[in-house]
Design goal:
Keywords: Repeat. Residues 41-201 form the Nephrocystin 3-like N-terminal domain. This is Nephrocystin 3-like N-terminal domain-containing protein. Pfam families: NPHP3_N. By secondary structure, the chain is α/β, with parallel strands linked by helices. The chain has 18 helices and five strands. A five-stranded parallel sheet has the order 2-3-4-1-5. α3 (93-104) runs parallel beside α5, α4 (109-118) packs across α5 (129-146) and α9 packs parallel to α12 (274-285). The radius of gyration is 24 Å and the shape is globular.
């Protein structure tokens, strides 16, 4: 009998932490995750990192998931992603966590099977999210702990559940139900060797829960990221110079590019957003169908209004001369769920190999806009 289905969960595009960045943030998280729970009931079970779009929350979640997956202490992870079916809803949230938990801690499987046998409706929408989490995740895990079935692993530290992008879940009432039940559960069971790492933006339906007892808050914006942005830019431009003959020739004839002052200005212009830094770098180095070389595009980026809006406005304005522009942009605005490039072409009756259509999507800013 098939009891638990797992969703294959891929993190959002370009979500890995860039090497050498976010080291201080990650150390704070690992210090919390590695501190004991069984003999330290006062330690917070929930670590909540919050910040605006593009400041690196998903990158950090991915790094934490990989680290504790390698340690054998990642119980489960769920990366919410807006407008992505099951990944943007709570419909299979508890079931997915349970399925991953069985893979990480096989000893919990028998307890889950017993729960489903006693209450078959657990795998349907006929019961509340709180009941599903209680019966399919929290109780089976606690039962395995009490029977000493995972004692050796717990000697290395508590297990971890990673929940990324909670604000991107469309079921706001169930998000509130999940948070409230999680807080209540750990209040009643303070010695449970289980921790939740959660990231989100601070939206209205989430804000009221952030300052609750048992939650350790971390404002990602408060961590100065200019040094990390500089590391990303320096490394990225250095690698690109080895691959791009135009940049290599310019450096040979004129010296370092971008200059230190260029880098300083870029970092200030970016304002701490890794999404903006990545999009801006891709725009500068091309290749684009605008006839400009990277050295010409660099000063143009500094004349744009700060933020992604300025980059998108410039990119879309340059794209308007291309055939199909209005049709493609209108389609993007009107479809209920994102479509791949091939899907847009099929919907509009455009051949994907058609030169003008391909050129439209060669604009890196437009690609990032579509993502």
């Amino acid at each position: 009998m098939h009891l638990i289905r797992e969703i294959e969960r891929h993190p959002p595009p370009d979500s890995d932490c860039f090497p050498g960045t976010r080291e201080g943030v990650l150390k704070g998280i690992t210090d919390w995750a590695d501190s004991p729970v069984l003999f330290n009931a006062g330690a917070p079970h929930i670590y909540w990192t919050h910040g605006y779009v593009g400041c690196g929350k998903s990158s950090i979640s991915q790094a934490v998931s990989q680290k504790y997956g390698q340690k054998g202490r990642l119980l489960a992870s769920f990366f919410f992603y807006r407008n992505s079916g099951d990944r943007s809803r709570m419909a299979r949230f508890a079931e997915t966590l349970a399925g991953q938990m069985v893979a990480a801690v096989p000893a919990t499987g028998s307890f889950i099977k017993a729960a489903v046998k006693a209450e078959p409706a657990l795998l349907t929408r006929g019961v509340s999210l709180a009941t599903q989490l209680e019966r399919l995740v929290y109780r089976p895990f606690s039962a395995a702990v009490k029977r000493g079935l995972i004692f050796k692993t717990l000697l290395r530290g508590p297990f971890l559940v990673v929940i990324d992008g909670l604000d991107e879940c469309e079921d706001k009432e169930e998000v509130k139900e999940f948070i409230q039940h999680l807080l209540d559960y750990f209040k009643q069971h303070p010695s449970t060797p289980l921790r939740f790492f959660i990231t989100s933006r601070v939206e209205r339906h989430i804000k009221e829960y952030l300052k609750a007892d048992g939650v350790q808050l971390d404002d990602l914006v408060a961590h100065g990221s200019d040094d990390d942005i500089l590391t990303f830019l320096e490394t990225s431009f250095s690698h690109r110079a080895k691959e791009d003959d135009v940049i290599a020739a310019y450096v040979q004839g004129h010296g370092q590019w971008p200059t230190r002052n260029d880098m300083k200005t870029l970092v200030h212009h970016i304002g701490g957003s890794f999404i903006f830094a990545s999009a801006l770098f891709k725009y500068i180095v091309g290749p684009l169908d605008d006839g400009l070389i990277p050295m010409t595009r660099l000063p143009l980026t500094l004349d744009m209004n700060p933020g992604l809006d300025g980059l998108y406005t410039y990119t879309l304005a340059k794209s308007q001369r291309l055939p199909h522009f209005s049709d493609v942009i209108s389609t993007i605005a009107l479809v209920f769920e994102p479509l791949p490039i091939a899907g847009i072409a099929e919907l509009l009756g455009i051949e994907t190999f058609e030169h003008s259509f391909v050129n439209l999507f060669q604009f890196k800013g437009l690609r990032n806009f579509l993502d």
